[in-house]
């Protein structure tokens, strides 16, 4: 059982919903990432998505785009991201870490090198936004062989065929994008999400997390009624922007705590 699967299993036994949180590595500063990861855990995050900075993050709204720009201006790339995970693992061996990003950095170093480095530093999986499931079965198999989970996105527009393909090759959990658009946009229609999750679960037996548009405790709690996990990214980045580099760690921990409290209420 992977670390991600074990986390979901343990939470299910406690009748709890997983809290999956996202930050961009290297934002707001090169030395901020590992303290922010620990702050997320201290606030109650169950899984961390660590964004790999990329110049053209096509699925991201302006908030995460700015985070990528700041990280790239700080000179942070995929090899630095591996270093952050290794540093985090020195004091936390239990919280799953998922590397989230785009194909270009992985192709640049090579998929096998990406897998080997992920294993070496203690990462647990990856979300690669622009790797379609039907075109990366070989990569997914190589990830599974290394005991890493390759997590795929599903959207309101996903066909039954695409859902079945994700069920075939995905691992860890499936990530349902609740909105048509980029990260941080719009408001969630929970009734529509519930209907879509019912259709997804006809094929996908993995836990299903819901993200895009979850901005506060009330929304997180509503989504938790129908999903196995809530995923929050843009709202956390906004906390970092508002607090600045000196106040980011405290702000992120406080916000994460507020979401965890809402989920457990």
TrEMBL record:
<comment type="function">
    <text>The alpha subunit is responsible for the aldol cleavage of indoleglycerol phosphate to indole and glyceraldehyde 3-phosphate.</text>
</comment>
<dbReference type="InterPro" id="IPR018204">
    <property type="entry name" value="Trp_synthase_alpha_AS"/>
</dbReference>
<feature type="active site" description="Proton acceptor">
    <location>
        <position position="60"/>
    </location>
</feature>
<dbReference type="GO" id="GO:0005829">
    <property type="term" value="C:cytosol"/>
</dbReference>
<comment type="similarity">
    <text>Belongs to the TrpA family.</text>
</comment>
<dbReference type="Pfam" id="PF00290">
    <property type="entry name" value="Trp_syntA"/>
</dbReference>
<keyword id="KW-0822">Tryptophan biosynthesis</keyword>
<keyword id="KW-0057">Aromatic amino acid biosynthesis</keyword>
<comment type="pathway">
    <text>Amino-acid biosynthesis; L-tryptophan biosynthesis; L-tryptophan from chorismate: step 5/5.</text>
</comment>
<protein>
    <recommendedName>
        <fullName>Tryptophan synthase alpha chain</fullName>
        <ecNumber>4.2.1.20</ecNumber>
    </recommendedName>
</protein>
<dbReference type="GO" id="GO:0004834">
    <property type="term" value="F:tryptophan synthase activity"/>
</dbReference>
<dbReference type="InterPro" id="IPR011060">
    <property type="entry name" value="RibuloseP-bd_barrel"/>
</dbReference>
<comment type="subunit">
    <text>Tetramer of two alpha and two beta chains.</text>
</comment>
<feature type="active site" description="Proton acceptor">
    <location>
        <position position="49"/>
    </location>
</feature>
<keyword id="KW-0028">Amino-acid biosynthesis</keyword>
<keyword id="KW-0456">Lyase</keyword>
<dbReference type="InterPro" id="IPR013785">
    <property type="entry name" value="Aldolase_TIM"/>
</dbReference>
<dbReference type="InterPro" id="IPR002028">
    <property type="entry name" value="Trp_synthase_suA"/>
</dbReference>
